[in-house]
Amino acid sequence: MAYVNPAGEFTRDQRYIPTRITADGRDGYPVEPGRYRLVVSRACPWANRAIIVRRLLGLEDALSMGIAGPTHDERSWTFDLDPDGRDPVLGIERLQEAFLARYPSYDKGITVPAIVDVPTGQVVTNDFAQITIDLSLEWTAFHRSGAPSLYPAALREEIDKVNRFVFADVNNGVYRAGFAGTQEAYETAYHRLFDRLDKLSERLTTQRYLVGDTITEADVRLFTTLVRFDAVYHGHFKCNRSKLSEMPVLWAYARDLFQTPGFGDTIDFVHIKQHYYVVHKDINPTRIVPAGPSLSNWLDEHGREKLGGRPFGDGTPPPPPVPAEVVPAEHGPVG
């Protein structure tokens, strides 16, 4: 499977399944505890958003989570982490099976995160941007006591604005650099990425979080790219003007979030590196996974508390991850 566009600029296929799971069930899928399964891979930044939001909101009991392995082939993500290679709830070996159960001739990407209707075994949605918003707004009846408001009404317009340029220039920007097929396309993406990172550094110099004085959806979306930057994007995707650890403001901001319950405890650096360096064979034909970089500095003091801010607003930190969802210690910053 090829990822690089030999003609030049990488363009992301954004044809996702738009069906929504809502409190009123207007798309035919009402919010019901235990009915759905969130399928993720810890390697994927888009899925990582849903993992974090589910943790912060305390939806573990209402929405179960299946974790696919860090690598996949041309067909789809697989459940090779499970003892018999099958998801224990859905009973399938490949996420592709849930997509084909609903759309037998499905011809778009089999992507994570995806939410599957357990009774029918059919995928409901893989619209990653909408999934996290709906977890915040539609699943409120099942939020934990003390759940933060990640998408507050008063800040939504600003959050949406920030999310648009973060997606275009940073979240997707690293891929536009990494999958570019010409020097011109690569350099355009490279400069766009670092120009935006410089602007974000300026924004975060005087405020602890991207929008308002609490963690919001905007911080979740930026974090999942930043946390992968030095381990993957700097080398593998040639985003190498600077490491994250050489950009003081963004580095402190990322460490602040990493050390916040619900963020760093979802990060599996081993899975992240395995995914990118093994799956993207046209970029890394040897499939050798680098041993570095050192990760212990993720736990260094960040000093961002001096800017004020209340991480969870009027809410509280989430409890520790449930035992079945704990990232192995050796896959973290001290592994």
TrEMBL record:
Glutathione binds at residue 77. Signal peptide: none annotated. The active site is at residues 44, 175. It comes from the Bacteria. The record marks 233, 276 as: Lowers pKa of active site Cys. Residues 324-335 have a biased composition (Low complexity). InterPro entries: Glutathione-S-Trfase_C-like, Glutathione-S-Trfase_C_sf, Glutathione_S-Trfase, Glutathione_S-Trfase_N, GST_Omega-like_C, GST_Omega/GSH, Thioredoxin-like_sf. It holds the Pfam family GST_C_2. Residues 306-335 are annotated as: Disordered. GO terms for cellular component: cytoplasm. Residues 126-279 form the GST C-terminal domain. GO terms for molecular function: glutathione transferase activity. This is Glutathione S-transferase. It comes from Paractinoplanes toevensis.
